[in-house]
Amino acid sequence: MNAAPAGGTRLLLLIGAGLSFALAVLGVLLPGLPATPFLLITSWCLVRASPRLHEKLLRSPLFGPLLRDWQSHHGVRLHVKITALVLMTGCGALTLFFADLSTWLNVLIGVLLLLGTGVVLRLRLVRD
Length: 128
Known about the structure:
mainly alpha; 6 helices
């Protein structure tokens, strides 16, 4: 592993890691916000800026298994796929049913749900 970059680049990477980590945590708490992409950005930034913090993230009981699966297999486990699909579908259905949105927003939500579903279904499945 190369040494961490110096000065401003390292600081920008650490700020990026912090912001994306905060969004990943929010993604765990809020069903409409995905945690995984922000977690992967966090990991990418930390690998370059602070290998020590990256190792700490990999040891995290909440985020570590997902990151290790992604690093080792470039995929996710079945329960991650199912959780993502259920939450996306549920949040989308609740939004479409209860929110009084214009037709174009309803169509946009439907298209985004279809795109998100396609992305999740295409992720490689990690098996034991």
